[in-house]
Every structure is written in C-alpha cells, then in structure tokens.
Amino acid sequence: MSDEIDPQKLALTSSISMQNINSKKPPRHKPGERFLKGPIPLKWLSKAARLPGKAFHCSIAIYVLAGIREARIFPLERTVINELGINRHSVYRGLSALEKHKLINVERHPGRFPIVTILEAE
Predict the structure, then answer these.
(1) Quick count: other Cβ atoms within 10 Å of Cβ 57?
(2) CATH of domain 29-118
C-alpha cells in the first residue's frame, strides 16, 4: 500500500454546476413551482419553531398558502399539507399548538377545511 495521496480521488464529483456555486444569491424557484413567500416575521417563525411535533411544518404550510392566496385569512388546503408530508392528525395537533400560542386563529366547521387566520406574534 502506498502512502501517497492521489488528488484525483479527492476531487469532488457532483452534478452541481460551478455557475450555481459561484452565485451569491440563494436558489430560486422555477416558473410554475410553488415557493415560500415572505417576508415572514422572525419572531413569529421562531415561536412556531419551538413548538412540539409538526407545528413548525404546519406553520410553513400556512405561510405557503398565505402567499398563494395573498391573504392572512384562508381555508387550509390538503395539497400543500400533502406536499410537505404531514398527515391530517399531525395537522390537527400542529394547528392546536399554533393556536394555543396565539400565532393563528382557527375556525373549525364539520366536514370542511379549517379557516386559518395568521395573527401577529406577541
């Protein structure tokens, strides 16, 4: 066995183009792709991040939907929830946690999607 280091074995082999790495801006969504629209108040987001379970995942889904609807009051849709891989029971618990900590208000109606209102973080 040789003690020499082969630089070829240390070379990065990746499909990432150097053009993307040299860009100073973060990656952007492609036309037609969904994205997280901001700005999102960091105070609100940090409170959501400290909550248990999938509450933070729910908060991201809520802000995605708020960006799509361009509103702070909207019905929660299953499409974004499914895209983020959150099951409905986790959504219910996440909504309850966010509501308990006064980040959102939720109107629940039997057989319909809940109506979410984003509140200011205290």
Answers:
(1) 17
(2) 1.10.10
